[in-house]
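--- STAGE predict ---
source: upstream dedup step, 1 unique chain passed
mode: sequence only
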Amino acid sequence: MEKNNNKKRTTVRIQGQTYKVVSSEEPAHVKEVASYMNEKMEELKKRNPYLDSTKLAVLTALNIADEYLKLKRQYEGE
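--- STAGE serialize ---
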């Protein structure tokens, strides 16, 4: 098994929880992604304050996947 020494450990906070993310991406990028995720979760939580954290995370992931796929189709010219 190869070791990847390019991986960096970055600590982020999402919805009050701390996560240690190991990634080859720069810490600034990882923090930007976590911030985006947190913002999206906050938006959804404001509209649905009684969602538990699991449902909030899954619905946020669905919304972000929807955004991604629409942008991907637009980029690819579909």
